[in-house]
Amino acid sequence: MERVNGWRNALKEVADLAGMVLGDGYEAWFVQSFVEVVSKNLDPKIFHVPLHFIGRDALVQDINSWLQDGSHGAAIALLYEIGGVGKTAIGKSVFNKNSYKFDGKSFLSNFRSKDMFAYRDNFFPTS
């Protein structure tokens, strides 16, 4: 009986939640804003990353700001540096924070500079 009462209380709590109101707006815009709100509130973490990078939080915030600006029209972000400085961890953190904003997304890691041209030619053909 205690379990049933627990479910009953949970359902009452959910029933009392306030929702979003469409008002006089367009339904498509309402649905899009609803999807954005839900996406932001879900746990979007795809990759496990440390909570804090020593000396790297500012860089992650700079990349996030650059991606959120939207004025640059970039489709690809590339992190390139010598090995062992945390590029993959930085990339995973940025991906986790921004992936919900894009319809299509991918995360490529562990490829060498000679491979970049093959990726470019396969994904972005010039003809």
Automatic annotation (TrEMBL):
Taxonomic superkingdom: Eukaryota
InterPro entries per the UniProt record, alphabetical: Disease_R_plants (IPR044974), P-loop_NTPase (IPR027417)
GO biological process annotation, one example: defense response
Protein's UniProt name: NB-ARC domain-containing protein
Organism: Populus trichocarpa
